[in-house]
Design goal:
Blueprint: E1 8-12, H1 16-27, E2 31-35, E3 51-52, H2 60-79, E4 86-87, E5 91-93, H3 103-112, E6 118-120, H4 122-128, E7 142-145, E8 149-151, H5 153-166, E9 170-172, E10 178-183, E11 186-192, E12 197-199, E13 202-205, H6 211-216, E14 228-234, E15 244-246, E16 251-255, E17 259-263, H7 265-271, E18 272-274, E19 280-282, H8 284-296, E20 306-313, E21 323-326, E22 333-337, H9 341-358
Parallel strand pairs: 1-2, 1-13, 2-9, 5-15, 13-22
Antiparallel strand pairs: 3-8, 4-8, 5-7, 6-7, 10-11, 11-12, 14-17, 14-20, 15-16, 16-17, 18-19, 21-22
Helix pairs in contact: 1-5, 1-9, 2-9
Length: 376
């Protein structure tokens, strides 16, 4: 039985937001179809650093949402205690040794929020973060956040899709891209590029960096600050590092199978060029420089080798805050568009499904409404 007036929903996008929302709706007894232009996690979810955190400074509502997101992963970890795709070994961060160093301010802010934080010297950091080369830490010190962790989103999405299928959900991957169908001012389903139509009482658009453009096709404005992201996955390596490292020149995240995920804004800026056909060219010398930067912060400065490279848009709204909920100008049309897709992945699916299923607005999403970009 459903607890609402809708009985069916179509979700466009099989990344973490789409799949998480689909599972939550299916749990409520709603018939759900997820449409994706290829295999699950073939977009931003497949190239996410996936660091679970609410570190540093942001708005209070955004912090609360992220903390709720981390809480859901804690609950999930009790169901899968041996999962290689979800770990809570903490996060260590430090800033460059220049006037932009904000470690002291960040530490005071985190303490004020009761966000567990330890300010450490380089030598102290070695005791709580095995596998670290302490020589990389700048004189201002580092912050260790014991409650942080990481998730492998493609593996998590696979687990969620097993439940989705068991609940009767349908995943369609072989009909190309899809678009929202709007008739008489209302969203009535989606149509794939092959021409097949999937009628539904509600449509959820969860296509990562493509959300603003797709919403614009129906006259809706969503501010877009999406940059290009580059994620390098290494070959397996026997190494003791377990915490996530967020450093001035590289972020390093352990991954399943003894591999590591690496990213840095500068590497994406300097190493990726978009071609006229929409594809990307990657500068191998920049990738090699990123590997070297990662080795510098890891104990023993190991030789890291590339296993795979992911490149594409990193979903970031124009004002940096999540965009979640109904497009009120078009009844039945919902969107999920945000940075921190990993941290927010489970909680966004839960709260958005609540809104779709009940027709009620959840108070935790009050400041994240799409209409803030239009002033309506």
């Amino acid at each position: 039985m459903t607890d609402n007036t809708i009985s069916s929903a179509v979700i466009i996008g099989a990344g973490i937001f789409g799949v998480s929302t689909g599972v939550q709706l299916a749990r409520r007894g709603i018939r759900v179809t997820i449409l994706n232009d290829g295999p699950p996690a073939n977009g931003a979810s497949g190239r996410s650093l996936s660091w679970l955190n609410s570190a540093r400074m942001r708005s209070a509502p955004y912090h609360r949402l992220r903390m709720a997101g981390i809480d859901r992963y804690r609950t999930l970890s009790t169901r899968y205690p041996d999962a290689e795709w979800l770990r809570f070994h903490g996060g260590l961060t430090w800033d460059a040794d220049d006037e932009r160093n904000e470690i002291d301010a960040a530490y005071r802010h985190e303490v004020s929020l009761a966000y567990e934080a330890q300010k450490l010297s380089a030598n102290d950091a070695a005791d709580v973060t095995p596998g670290l080369d302490v020589r990389a830490i700048t004189p201002q010190g580092a912050i260790f956040n014991p409650g942080e962790g990481w998730v492998d989103l493609p593996m998590l999405i696979g687990v969620l899709l097993e439940e989705f299928s068991a609940l009767g959900g349908v995943l369609v991957m072989d009909q190309g891209a899809a678009r929202v169908m709007v008739e008489d001012g209302r969203a009535v389903g989606a149509q794939t590029s092959t021409g097949n139509r999937f009628a539904a009482d509600a449509v959820v658009l969860a296509t990562g960096p493509a959300v603003p453009k797709m919403a614009a096709e129906n006259g809706q404005t969503i501010g877009d600050g999406t940059p290009i992201a580059l994620l390098v996955q290494t070959k397996p390596l026997a190494h003791p590092l377990r915490a996530v490292l967020n450093t001035p020149r590289v972020a390093v995240r352990p991954a399943p199978g003894g591999t590591f995920s690496l990213d840095a804004d500068w590497a994406a800026d300097e190493g990726v060029t978009m071609r006229a056909d929409g594809g990307y060219d990657i500068d191998d010398s920049v990738v090699q420089a990123l590997l070297i930067e990662a080795a510098k912060v890891m104990e023993g400065n190991p030789k890291l080798e590339v296993a795979s490279i992911g490149v594409g848009g990193k979903p970031i709204p124009g004002d940096g805050e999540p965009v979640i909920g109904a497009l009120k100008a078009i009844p039945g049309y919902y969107v999920a568009f945000s940075h921190s897709g990993a941290t927010l992945g489970l909680i966004v699916g839960e709260l958005l499904a609540y809104e779709v299923a009940t027709g009620c607005e959840h108070p935790m999403l009050a400041t994240f409404r799409p209409e803030r970009f239009t002033g309506t």
